[in-house]
Amino acid sequence: MDDQQIQQESRFWVQQKITLMINRYTVSIARPDGSVGEQVCFVEQKRMTLKEQVTFLRDGVPAFRFKARKVMDLGATYDVMTADGQEIGLFRKNFGKSLLRSTWHLQQPGLPEVTGQERNMAVALLRRVQDTIPLPFHFDFASPDGHPIMSLTRAFSLRDKYLLEVHDPALDRRLAIAMAVALDALQSR
Questions:
Q1: What is the dihedral of CA 30, 31, 34, 35, to 10 degrees?
Q2: CB of 79 closer than 8 Å to CB of 90
Q3: Considering the chain, what is the average pLDDT of its residues?
């Protein structure tokens, strides 16, 4: 599946694979019936690195990636780019607002910045005081005028599995997929 075909899709499954030293994910098309369809990419993130970098592979070849601008930054900015270094967009964590309710900002050239927050404030607070029970982990991203851009909803599963829904056709799907993986891989839960 190439970039043009991916841009035609609006629903994806993001599933974590359990390993010791590397976070691995698969991203697949979500079929209309909710089942897992064709794989879009495979993702790897090495753990315990000073500067976060996550690579998205298609057929074993790097397709795009996101990388932190700085080493160990609480409100880090991550650049999303193609394998050859062309800018797709960026995202950053709003550290202050994330103390109570995780908040991220997403930017794509030519579009206004959008903000994403955990959907439920009560669940967000509960997640901060306990970590033994996997709680729902849902995010909604909206434009400054409140227009829905994308959402990420955790499915009931032993492993991390999320439904990514892109509501705005102008949003680059690679940027949306990178943000979805980051919400699982980078959130301290």
A1: -90
A2: yes
A3: 86
State how far the alpha carbon of 148 is from the alpha carbons of 122, 131, 159, 181, 182, in Å. Answer: 21, 29, 27, 19, 19
CA–CA dist 161, 15 (Å, integer): 4
User: Given CA atoms 26, 140, 73, 184 in this order, what sign does their dihedral have?
Assistant: negative
Number of domains in the chain: 1
Token pair for 94: 């709003």
Residue 136: CB atoms within 10 A of its CB come to 14
Task: Write the pLDDT tens digit of every residue in 99-130.
Answer: 667 889 999 999 999 999 987 656 655 555 56
Half-sphere exposure (CA, 13 Å, Cβ side) for 168? 20
Tell me the CATH number at 63.
3.20.90.10
User: In whole angstroms, what is the distance from residue 35 CA to residue 176 CA?
Assistant: 20
Phi-psi region of 87 (alpha: psi -120 to 50; beta: other; left: phi over 0): beta
The closest alpha carbon to 23, from 188, 154, 189, 182, belongs to 182
Domain that holds residue 14: 3-185
Total-model pTM: 0.88
